[in-house]
Each structure stands twice: as structure tokens, then as C-alpha cells.
Amino acid sequence: MIRIIFPLLVGIATLLAGNAAAAGGATLRSDAPDSHVVVKGDTLWGISGRFLNEPWRWPEVWRMNRDQIRNPHLIYPGQVILLDRSGPWLSVGRRIGGTRDDKLHPKVYSEALSEAVPTIPLQVIEPFLTKPLVVDQARIDGAATIVATETSRVLMGSGDTVFAKNVRDDVKVWQILRPTRPLEDPVTHKVVAYEANHLGTARVSEFGAPATLEIVSAVEEIQVGDLMVPSEQPSVFAYAPHAPTQEVDGRVMSIYRGVTETGRLNIVTLNIGERDGLERGHVLALHRNRGVAEFKGDEGKETFVLPDKRYGVGLVFRVFDHVAYALVMESDGPVVIGDMVRKP
Known about the structure:
The chain is mostly beta strands. The chain has three domains: 2-122, no CATH class; 131-230; 250-342, Thrombin, subunit H, CATH 2.40.10.410. 13% of the residues lie in helices and 35% in strands. It has helices at residues 2-20, 44-49, 66-70, 100-104, 122-125, 137-141; strands at residues 35-37, 80-84, 89-92, 134-135, 144-149, 161-165, 173-184, 191-206, 211-218, 227-230, 250-255, 261-262, 267-270, 283-288, 292-297, 300-305, 309-319, 324-331, 335-336, 340-342. The protein starts with a helix and ends with a strand. Residues 1-23, 65-73 and 99-113 have low confidence and may be disordered.
């Protein structure tokens, strides 16, 4: 996946860097170092956080030339990131560990593409990029359904044959899912969608009514009544983080794994989605409602609505019609259901 992701990210970052930094959006940390040696496990977000007050602004300050746009420069452990405070600009310096012989006798360095530095920790979100995580009522109504098994078994796994209705004749591979927990909007208290438990994949061996399918993979046991939706193409995280152009007014609707609060590098579900102008790569500020305070003075009791507190940042990585998933990148306190998300 990184083979595709990183070159695209650098290309986007390069195109943005030309005028965004000049606008003065990105500011340096007071303790920013002059350089940083890349180590295994680094991310572009993390590296930029050593230099910038707002790490998500890294696309504005990475300086790349036209040759690097045509042949994007991959960043690997052992390379040096240099800070030019006049921009500010960040650029890739020479690899450490060289010798005088290296100057006289150029060498070709090779690195596995899997060692390239990604934008964020991809291992955290990768399982979420290809699976049908959310289904609304319309998608449930239009899904195919497993109606029988070849051997009348109750539970099925890889290699078993199943029969399903409503299988489109233009789709060969299907993802099997089971709607589970309803997602309730914390403001309207209406169910906007259902979280889907991904069970596995199946391939059509014979179209018909019902169609015959073979279960190709199973992560959980599959049974009659489970739903199927067309298999999606792998979703590539190939964009740079950026702020929404419009104002955003959303809430944290749920937290992955059903817990009531979470923190950094964990996944939350938002009650806004594509229909609200949200897109992948959007950076959102996390705000906490401080509530209401009452004050008793000479003029009697007064009530004050306390200002919200901005306490963190989330990065949207997958978007549905009314729902989005975001990775909490920064937080100085727990993320709680009902917290607000806004334009940073």
C-alpha cells in the first residue's frame, strides 16, 4: 500500500508548498531543532511535529523541486530532515553514515518501499480502508442475502458453498457482513446508520436466483441471513491533510470497540459525512463542552455558558454519506462521545 500512497502524498505536498507557506499558515515550535534524523517508525506527521506547532500543516512547508515532483522523493530511515527557518521550509538532506569514498565512488542505495516513511501510522487505519464499516438502511435494503448452505450447516467458513438472493449479475466478488450496533446521532438521537461486522468474502461460481457462491475468506463464522455487498476496490490513503474550506459542526458519535472514551491514535465515528462537505484528509479540531456555571453575587444568581475547550486534532480517513471515521492524532485529554469537531 505504501508503494502507492507515499509518492502521491509527496506530489500533493509539493504542489501545495509553493504558496501555502508564503501565506504564513505554518509556524515553528519555539524548540524546533535544525535537523532530524529519520528513524524506523517515524511518520511525516510525527516528524513535522518536531518542527511545527501544528503538524498537520506539513504539506505547506516540504520543499521539493520539479524533478522530485516527476520522480517523488521517498524518505527513509537514516536520511536527514533539514529546517530552513526563512520559510519555514523542510527539505530532505543527505543520508547519514557516508564516507569520503562515497564522494569519489557514487553508490546506488536501495530500500524496500515498505520502509518508506508514511504520513500517519498506516497499520492503525489499514483494516478500515477496505471493509464495509457502516451501512445505512438503504444499503441494507439493497444488499444480497445468504439464504441457504449446500450441506445445511448452521455456521460456515472458508471453502464452503452458500446460496444467496439479490446477487447482481455484474458483480463477481462480494463482502459478507452483519449489521450490529446502531449509530445514534448524539444531537438528534436518531439512528443514522449501523456499524457492520465484516465476516469475510465470497465469489460467485454460478449466477442465478439464488446464486451459488464459494466463501473465499472468513474472519468469523458465517450463517444464513448474513448480508452481502459488492466488494470495494482498495481505498488508498493518497492525499495530504488539509483544513475544510467550510465551517464544520459535528459530534463524536461513537468510539471504536464500544468504549466510552479514548485517546491518541484511536478511531472515532463522527455524525457528519460526505453530505456535510466532509472528505478524506480533512483535519478537524476536537472541542469539549465545559458546560454551564452559576454565580451568586450581589445582583442575584447569574448563569454563564462556558467557552468550549479545544483539546485535540483528528484526521478524517474514511467518509460515508452521513458518517465519517477519524483518527485522533493529538489529544491532551480523553475523547468522549458527544465532543464537538470543528474547522481548525
